[in-house]
Automatic annotation (TrEMBL):
UniProt organism field: Amycolatopsis australiensis
Domain Alpha-D-phosphohexomutase C-terminal: start-end pairs: 372-446
Nucleotidyltransferase found in the keyword field: no
GO biological process, one term: carbohydrate metabolic process
Protein name per Swiss-Prot or TrEMBL: Phosphomannomutase
Origin superkingdom: Bacteria
GO molecular function terms noted in the UniProt entry: intramolecular phosphotransferase activity; metal ion binding
Domain Alpha-D-phosphohexomutase alpha/beta/alpha: 8-134, 154-253, 261-367
Keyword Phosphoprotein on entry: yes
């Protein structure tokens, strides 16, 4: 019996092609997914990114699905949020072949039920793993069929219908697709808008020849920052490999915090739906719930991770959710995450007024933050307890353990310390009134963790 625990993650399947993932195994995953969703739907929609291994693995998955009597709708090259659009608009379960920002040797499968409802460990992924490990039963009936369908134009039209840019002033925007799927979707989505796009690395290339397609790492947006300043652009946008996350830089080439983007988009969504609920995870700036409440919304705090965000959105009927990892979730997009829709909101807000993006976003950036700082540790639990003991005895300190350890200090500073689910790491996020206070708290906590 194979042990698949190394590649079946919390939210998806991911591994090194040829070592951990091959066509035969992926075929079994497709058959197991078909067995899981067979009572719910007659077909599965499948998309894939630009990695060399993606078309073949997507075809193997389709073979597994059809072997169980279900049909396949293949949308071919797609961003992950384009696959979610297909799942939502066609009301079909879906599978997306991508390893997001991971290096070229990796690939993976993100799966969802009809309406882009996520499939994670607790919502079917463990069951799929068990089925494959124990051996997928053969189906004696008629095989399903495979049809091809291009949904890119419909996806683009749907997004443009959600954000009105018709009254925007002309904007010049640099877009760094990182040789990922943004190079596939941006030209169609932005067609006809009052936006001049200066493209960077739009050539689809799963070897990522220019830089890693992970815009949260500062070294991967250096080219974008330089180009924005060089051409005098109004803003820059960087997408990750599967283009479901977006990262924004302003006209100076300075990064805009994803928390500020969350607050900006939340305010725009609340203008359409006054009093609505906005989800934010617990490492998002405390400025987000403050701004949401000031605009009449109901902020709700969750654990980190898209399964928690989507579950809480469903439970509360939330209109929008944001994470500090630059994932943005919209009720009007089947509660799925789409960086493209968030980017359109930012551009609409920018184009509705005459000031620069730095001035616009400064109203949503209230505090200084450290960003995520990772430390390799042998014993995560012991180090967490040491930090808890060090701060828990201080007057006025509040501690909660919703996700790791969140410590609120008198005067408003706070930090969160969380263990990684997959690596021997502790992840630290600190926020305070200014950069000096942030650095002081970072130094204090790291002294305990790394001692």
């Amino acid at each position: 019996m194979p042990d698949l625990s190394g590649i079946v993650k919390a939210y998806d399947i991911r591994g090194v092609v040829g070592e951990q993932l091959d066509a035969a195994l992926v075929r079994d995953f497709g058959a197991a997914f078909a067995l899981l969703i067979k009572p719910e739907a007659p077909s599965v929609v499948i998309g894939h990114d630009m990695r060399d291994s993606s078309p073949g693995l997507a075809a193997a998955f389709a073979e597994g699905v059809t072997s169980q009597g279900l049909d396949v709708v293949s949308i071919g090259l797609a961003s992950t949020d384009q696959l979610y659009f297909a799942s939502g608009s066609l009301n079909l379960p879906g599978a997306m072949f991508t390893a997001s920002h991971n290096p070229a040797k990796y690939n993976g499968i993100k799966m969802c039920r009809a309406g882009a409802s996520p499939v994670g460990q607790d919502t079917g992924l463990a069951e799929i793993r068990d089925t494959v490990e124990q051996g997928v039963p053969e189906f004696e009936g008629q095989r399903g069929t495979i049809t091809e369908r291009d949904v890119l134009a419909d996806y683009a039209a749907y997004l443009r219908n959600l954000v009105d840019l018709s009254g925007s002033r002309p904007l010049k925007i640099v877009v760094d697709a990182g040789n990922g799927m943004g190079g596939h979707t941006v030209p169609t989505v932005f067609e006809g808008l009052p936006i001049e796009v200066v493209p960077m690395y739009f050539e689809l290339d799963g070897s990522f020849p220019n830089h890693e397609a992970n815009p949260l790492d500062p070294k991967n947006i250096v080219d974008l920052q330089a180009k924005v300043r060089e051409v005098g652009a109004d803003a820059g946008i960087a997408f990750d490999g599967d283009a479901d996350r977006c990262f924004i830089v302003d006209e100076r080439g300075e990064p805009v915090s994803p928390s500020a983007i969350t607050a900006l988009v939340a305010v725009r969504e609340l203008a359409k739906d006054p009093g609505g609920t906005i989800i934010h995870n617990l490492i998002t700036s405390k400025g987000v719930p403050e701004i949401v409440a000031e605009h009449g919304g109901k902020p709700v705090r969750t654990r980190v991770g898209h399964s928690f965000i989507k579950a809480e959105m469903a439970r509360t009927g939330a209109i929008f959710g944001g994470e500090h990892s630059a994932h943005y979730y919209f009720r009007d997009f089947w509660r799925a995450d789409t960086g493209m829709l968030a980017a359109l909101h930012v551009l609409a807000a920018l184009g509705e007024q005459n000031g620069p993006l730095s001035e616009l976003t400064s109203a949503y950036s209230r505090y200084a933050a450290s960003g995520e700082i990772n430390s390799t540790v042998d014993d995560q639990v012991a180090k967490m307890m040491a930090v808890k003991d060090a701060f828990g005895t201080r007057s006025g300190v509040e501690i909660d353990e919703l996700d790791g350890l969140t410590v609120q200090l008198p005067g408003g500073a706070w930090f969160n310390l969380r263990p990684s689910n997959t690596e021997p790491l502790l992840r630290l996020n600190v926020e305070a009134a200014n950069a000096e206070a942030v650095q002081g708290l970072v130094d204090e906590v790291l002294a305990i963790i790394r001692s």
